Amino acid sequence: MSDSSEDQAENTDKITSTAKSTKPPVPVVEWPKLGALYSDYIRICGTCVDNAQVELLISSSWVTVPAIGTKWSHSLKDFSPGAHTFQVRQTVDGITSDPGPVPTFMVRDKGTIPLPEVTEPNVNSSIPIGGIVQFKGSCTLNATVFVFDLDENMLGNAVVTGTTWSYAHTWNQSQVAYVKIRQVVGDDVSDVVGRWIGVGLTNNELEYTWDTPEVTPGQAGRNVPMGISEFGGTRTPYSGTESYTFVVTYWDNGAYYGYSVGDRWKVMVGPHYRSGYELIDIHVGDGGSGRAISKYIYELPIKIIDTPRPPAPSIRVPVTGSTHPVGALAIDGLCEVGNTVELLNGAGTKLNDALVVGNKWYSSLTLGEGRHRIRARQSKNGLTSEPSAVVQFTVVSPED
């Protein structure tokens, strides 16, 4: 085996062992609870490694779900009756965890009896903290009416008189709550009617703070680096059903959409490629229509500050002038921690995305005989480096 082949084999072992040793744990699932019966909205949520990317496997496809800090949350709707399974996994610094266990949740049959009618409160009603919400409506004769929260925890039984029902409930902290109401006659269970209730809101608006980026001392606005920046803060806790957050920028006429998890919101804004002052709008919302309970603040000033692009990464293996056998070639180099790295051909066309672990990146190519040229570049927050110096090497067939 040639020296270059030995280096290649050693580097391949290095990639495998590094990836195995740094694999993050499986995310924790807190809801749905095992054995719970669901209808209408189904919240799937839990905890994860700080700032991980969390993915949910549902209906045979992996989808990215909202995660902020150490919490992740996703809600589903319109599932067919019966048993359903899901899995979650998380990616940290380019390394993906194993998929978690396969929990099962049950979705109720829609039933044959009609929905109970809800006459009070109106959709998206707002009450003070500690105030009493009076739920009222009509139902089928001899029905029992139940009131549940988003996660199918029963809040209580309604008082039924003939074909009318009523129920009173109090919330003791500010939030946007989602309530499910169903009726039961004999063994038949109806579908649910939902109501959003705003608790402790002023003028039926959410309360929120904008924490990131921080206020710049001595300046009206905030300094925001060029590229992509994370905007985030706190908000009135929400139901986990229908929520939205977006930032509108005046300068580049962009609308950037994010999400909320619990009492936090987050939007990735940019990339900005030029420095200067700019105005933005921030809109955080929740509710039955997706916009009925919200807060909109206009023309907030920010200053885009000049930010240098990251330096070009280096290529350690292969080295210029080296020779390698036909087949798979392991490639690696150095980069800045937290950046993404792309492998390029000599002309600068992207070949693939590299695996980044700490300040090292790894890739591979399957090559035929001949002379080959490669380069690499790295990106951070939407700003991309110049390509690295060209590395030129030769691939030959093994001797007979």
Essential attributes:
6-stranded mixed beta sheet, Immunoglobulin-like, 38 strands, 7-stranded mixed beta sheet, 400 residues, flat, 5% helix, mainly beta, single chain
Strand share of the residues?
over 45%
User: What is the CA-CA span between the terminal residues?
Assistant: 14 Å
The CATH architecture category of the largest domain equals: Sandwich
Shape: flat
CATH topology of the largest domain, by name, is Immunoglobulin-like
Low-confidence runs (pLDDT<50, min 5 residues)? 1-20
Going across the biggest sheet, name each strand in turn: 22-28-27-24-25-26-23
Given the helix and strand composition, which structural class is it? mainly beta
Number of H/I helices = 1
Query: How many structural domains?
Result: 4
The biggest beta sheet, please? 7 strands, mixed
Mean pLDDT: 88
Rg from C-alpha positions?
27 Å
Number of strands: 38
Structure notes:
The protein folds into 4 domains: 20-107, Immunoglobulin-like (Sandwich); 117-199, Sandwich (Immunoglobulin-like), CATH 2.60.40.10; 222-305, Sandwich (Immunoglobulin-like); 310-396, Immunoglobulin-like. Strands 22-28-27-24-25-26-23 form a 7-stranded mixed sheet, with no helix packed on it. Strands 13, 15, 16, 19, 20 and 21 form a 6-stranded mixed sheet that branches. Strands 30, 32, 33, 36, 37 and 38 form a 6-stranded mixed sheet that branches. The chain is flat. It has one helix spanning 3-21, and strands at 28-31, 37-38, 42-47, 53-58, 61-65, 67-68, 71-76, 82-85, 87-92, 95-96, 104-107, 117-120, 125-127, 132-138, 144-149, 154-157, 159-161, 164-170, 175-185, 188-189, 193-199, 222-225, 227-234, 243-249, 255-261, 264-272, 276-286, 293-305, 314-317, 323-325, 327-334, 340-345, 350-353, 355-357, 360-367, 370-380, 383-384, 391-396. It has 1 helix and 38 strands.
